[in-house]
Amino acid sequence: MTTEAAEYFSRELLGWYRQNKRVLPWRMNRDPYRIWVSEVMLQQTRVDTVIPYYERFMDKFPTAEALAEAPEAEVLKCWEGLGYYSRARNLQAGAQEVVSRHDGVVPDDKAAVSALRGVGPYTAGAIMSIAFNRPEPAVDGNVMRVLSRYFCLEDDIAKPSTRVSIEKLAASLIPEGAAGDFNQALMELGALVCTPKSPGCLTCPVMAHCEGRMAGKEHILPIKTKAKPPRPELRLAALVTGTGSHAGKILIRQRPDTGLLARMWELPHIAGPSIAAAEDSDMPKKRRRAGAKAEPVPQRVREEQMDILCRTLAGEERVLIRPTSWWGEAEHVFSHLVWDVQVYITEFGFMLEEAAAAQEASALLADRAAEAHAVYAWQHDAGNEPAAEAAEADNLASLPANYRWIGPEDMSNYAFPNVFLRILREYWETVD
DNA sequence: AATCCGGGGTA
DNA sequence: TACCCAGGATT
């Protein structure tokens, strides 16, 4: 690679960017807090998706101090639907660090910015270059693709070591005094011209010296090893309908403080029988394509699933419900996981007389009745209430602390992952 | 170095 | 359908 080709690249790309850059809300000024928020939102997320979220977020949390002081639930609600919710929690933690350690001002200091929660090598480089015009590289997926093609680099960009070497290359290309524009130019080219598939070489400002294209390899670059496919999981979810004082409401619960979808709200649900166990059966293993209609599930299986769902919630969470009917299905795709969510309508509370009658009819139901009875006794030991008064458990049973009854008007107070948003919105429409 | 963490656009 | 995306934290 010649020095001339590199200088040509930087010069032409910078000129192209200054003529063609998009008007975006985070390009109004160089407020480092605004840049920071935009860069975090843009992690693994497209510009068009981010824009409306960014507008709402900056309207609600215009400064690091405002974000630092906000209740976390409000921040999550503002992030609802955007995904990777740890970004929101880390961003707020970072804002709190800025307030407590840097007097509310994002520091013009690479080490200090890198130390902020949720700020990694890319985001640190982006903030330092775009907000402060410091000559730091900001290497994301776009930049790795553009540079892999232009310099015909055949290293696997899935390897961390490749990102490090490309960072050194990117740093060497930054024109004097133009770090912010140049880094954005690299990403803008990757987003608008040097796209993953069918790159627009004919409109590319640096096509003339692109080594990847000259080698005829622009379509196979960058080299990237494939990720493992996500594993499928069956989830059984309960739309628990309230009665009495909770008529018209349904039951939701909050997830734990850590792990998947931390502190988000959801329908109570459990993991279904493992996929592996299902495939051990003599059923034909048909791979269902996403978007295709599911195989019809036999009523027998529906009843088994309802039963497992009710018994498990009673046994593990002390939530007493009884099955009503199958409601529908929803899919939720994570990067490493696919949930097949089967949703069942259930009623809150459990009538002991009914359970006793069922005891004679079915061994499975007998198990549930026995468990429910035990749970009921556990709940009412303290009060010494006679079991006969269990008919309206609705008003007697207390819920675990992470459970809430909500109506449609309460949706704006809780942050849900998309799959439960879809289910709940559709459900509220049908009950109206 | 591998895994976990969402969701949506694209060809 | 497969791939990709303005990645970072954890282990």
Automatic annotation (TrEMBL):
What InterPro entries is this protein classified in? A/G_AdeGlyc_MutY, DNA_glycosylase, Endouclease-III_FeS-bd_BS, HhH-GPD_domain, HhH_base_excis_C, MIG/MutY, MutY_C, NUDIX_hydrolase-like_dom_sf
Q: Which SMART domains match?
A: ENDO3c
Cofactors named for this entry: [4Fe-4S] cluster
Per the UniProt entry, the Enzyme Commission number(s) are: 3.2.2.31
Q: Describe how the cofactor binds.
A: Binds 1 [4Fe-4S] cluster.
| Catalytic reactions of this protein | Hydrolyzes free adenine bases from 7,8-dihydro-8-oxoguanine:adenine mismatched double-stranded DNA, leaving an apurinic site
The alphabetized UniProt keywords are: 4Fe-4S, DNA damage, DNA repair, Glycosidase, Hydrolase, Iron, Iron-sulfur, Metal-binding
Residue ranges annotated as coiled coil are none
Q: Is the keyword Aminoacyl-tRNA synthetase assigned to this protein?
A: no
Alphabetized Pfam families for the sequence: HhH-GPD (PF00730), NUDIX_4 (PF14815)
Q: Where is the HhH-GPD domain?
A: 41-192
The record's function comment reads: Adenine glycosylase active on G-A mispairs.
The record's comment on protein family reads: Belongs to the Nth/MutY family.
| PANTHER family tied to this protein | ADENINE DNA GLYCOSYLASE
UniProt protein name: Adenine DNA glycosylase
